Amino acid sequence: MRKYIFIGLLALVMAALTGCKEDAPKCKFHTETLDLTVVSADWQFDDNALQFYYHFDLPEITRSVYDYGNWTICREFNKGNKNAYQVALPMSCFMTDTLTSGEVAYYTQHIDYRLGEGYVEVQLTNSDYMYVYDKGKIVNPEDMFFRLQLMY
Fold this sequence. Notes:
Layout lengths: L1 H17 L12 E8 L5 E3 L4 E7 L5 H6 L1 E8 L7 E4 L2 E8 L5 E13 L2 E8 L6 E2 L2 E2 L5 E8 L1
Antiparallel strand pairs: 1-11, 2-3, 3-8, 4-5, 4-11, 6-7, 7-8, 9-10
């Protein structure tokens, strides 16, 4: 019986030690979800890195959020429908393209991001730099929807 009393008291002491201290700022926990859209025409192409990118200016990512927060970014498919779903970045999709010769080319489309204070940049790279061309110009990727979940 003493063993159980000791364990109970030990649990209470540990709970008190891990809680907020009265002289410390109040414990806080915040979450925020940002819906981010890239319209096809807005994708930019980096001729040096040979990849598409889009830069979002996000004042919600403050120095404090950057230093102490956590985040996830997902691509959302079927946005606004009951069968909508999300895939966490980075994500890779296995793609095919039929060449003018009739042959099928297989490649991987990789979507990733980088995050800094005040911004997120989404990057889309096709393996083997397999991009669709129309009249000698690279065709932009389709519209894409992303969700950024901030926890701080």
